[in-house]
């Protein structure tokens, strides 16, 4: 193919075209429009949209203690949620997962004599009798007001900062998981549905394997009825809020597929008579991508490293939110942000933040900052574009990473190399090199192309993002 070669390495340095909106006196970005509830974009099923049809690209760091305290009793400091939201805003993130834990104590990653606790619990601890963790037994007919009050407060606080919240109902790590060592704790021992932990005679482990693997199935009607009541209570607590997304559960067992399908249907049916309806998500690992795609969920988070390294272009049949928790847990790479952005996916980061498992540091690990910042840069770019008509077209760029509305705009990720070729077609274009970490425009130039393909030379070696749009003279 014949290329028009353009050297853009010595061009004018321009101010960032992707600067964040300034905070107000309270440090919060003022709302520009109604946040939601979000819907699937009517013309482009890859993206969320506000009620007025504006496309929304979601990204954010999430961590494990966003809803309930989790840590070692007497050692782990309380989670500072306001500080966390400030951290999110600092990096220009707009999405978090509100982690729900169903059990009260123990973790499979540490010894059983290390009492990792989760509170407040979903159900009240009324007794009579003592549960396996030494506290009063649970009454599965009585919800804990402290849990639901905190749930609402945390979603409201996120809303003040224009942050969307994925509200998680169930937790795959609240049943027995493969232990890190023979001495590791068994999370099932702290679960309210363990027959030794509740006063209601409900047994979430009918096989007697001391694991609770039947908890997230439809095998025990008494259990399912309590779970359905809990889901309804969560919906009643949050239905009027516009920044809510539902998430059936985090990494529920492979046997949970029909249970999750049932809960997707239950949530949708119950909300249908409510003032607002919110989108429903289903996430993977160990549930497979094909099972997620076959679900009635509106958005999914599929498992496997392919989703960070070289994901398939999103076809718009489901909104895909790539979550490193299910792909590359506890790892980070700013390339993953742009790889997914240009493949039509949303991107969220399982962030170690200041968790007790990394020593409860006073500040988040700065080594993660390039990825956190790249997420914010991609979000700001998404707000400069009209995503309504953009789709992943890897064949239009030599790098294979291209999101485009051909004839109007192209976003191309350049992971490295001496040149980048883009199929623009003939015309006059403005080509801008963007720093993938900061989002700042480093150089730009209007170019005339008489060829279908144009080759660009980056300003210097390394990773880049290129934005190609119609030249002002051509518009």
UniProtKB/TrEMBL annotation:
Signal sequence bounds: 1-20
Entry keyword annotation includes Magnesium: no
Occurrences of domain DUF6298 (ranges): 107-283
Xref: InterPro entries: DUF6298, GH
Pfam name, any one: DUF6298
Record SUPFAM superfamilies: (Trans)glycosidases
Domain of life: Bacteria
Protein name per UniProt: DUF6298 domain-containing protein
Sorted UniProt keywords: Signal
């Amino acid at each position: 193919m014949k290329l028009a070669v353009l050297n853009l390495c010595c061009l004018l340095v321009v101010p960032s075209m992707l600067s964040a909106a300034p905070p107000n006196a309270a440090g919060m970005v003022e709302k520009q429009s109604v946040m939601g509830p979000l819907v699937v974009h009517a013309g482009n099923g890859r993206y969320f949209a506000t009620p007025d049809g504006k496309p929304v690209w979601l990204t954010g760091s999430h961590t494990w203690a966003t809803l309930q305290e989790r840590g070692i009793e007497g050692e782990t400091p309380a989670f500072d949620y306001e500080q966390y939201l400030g951290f999110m805003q600092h990096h220009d993130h707009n999405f978090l997962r509100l982690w729900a834990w169903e059990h009260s104590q123990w973790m499979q990653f540490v010894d059983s004599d290390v009492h990792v606790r989760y509170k407040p619990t979903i159900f009240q601890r009324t007794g009579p009798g003592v549960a396996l963790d030494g506290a009063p037994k649970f009454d599965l007919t009585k919800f804990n007001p402290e849990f639901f009050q905190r749930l609402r407060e945390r979603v409201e606080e996120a809303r003040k900062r224009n942050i969307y919240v994925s509200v998680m109902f169930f937790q795959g790590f609240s049943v027995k998981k493969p232990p890190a060592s023979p001495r590791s704790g068994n999370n099932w021992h702290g679960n309210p549905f363990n027959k030794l932990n509740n006063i209601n005679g409900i047994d979430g482990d009918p096989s007697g394997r001391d694991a609770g693997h039947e908890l997230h199935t439809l095998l025990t009607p008494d259990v399912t009825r309590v779970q359905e009541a809990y889901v309804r209570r969560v919906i009643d607590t949050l239905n009027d809020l516009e920044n809510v997304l539902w998430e059936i559960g985090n990494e529920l067992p492979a046997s949970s597929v029909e249970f999750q399908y049932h809960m997707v249907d239950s949530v949708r049916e119950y909300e249908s008579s409510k003032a607002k309806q919110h989108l429903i998500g289903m996430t993977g690992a160990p549930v497979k991508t094909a099972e997620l795609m076959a679900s009635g969920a509106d958005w999914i988070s599929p498992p496997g490293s392919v989703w960070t390294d070289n994901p398939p272009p999103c076809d718009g049949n489901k909104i895909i939110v790539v979550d490193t928790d299910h792909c590359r847990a506890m790892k980070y790479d700013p390339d993953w942000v742009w790889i997914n952005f240009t493949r039509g996916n949303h991107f969220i980061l399982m962030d170690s933040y200041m968790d007790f498992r990394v020593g409860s540091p006073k500040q988040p690990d700065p080594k993660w900052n390039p990825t956190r910042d790249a997420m914010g840069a991609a979000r700001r770019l998404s707000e400069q574009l009209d995503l309504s008509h953009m789709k992943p077209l890897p064949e239009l760029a030599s790098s294979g990473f291209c999101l485009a509305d051909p004839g109007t705009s192209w976003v191309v990720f350049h992971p490295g190399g001496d040149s980048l070729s883009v199929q623009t077609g003939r015309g006059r274009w403005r080509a801008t090199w963007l720093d993938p970490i900061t989002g700042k425009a480093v150089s730009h130039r209007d170019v005339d192309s008489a060829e279908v393909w144009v080759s660009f030379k980056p300003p210097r070696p390394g990773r880049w993002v290129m934005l190609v749009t119609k030249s002002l003279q051509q518009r």
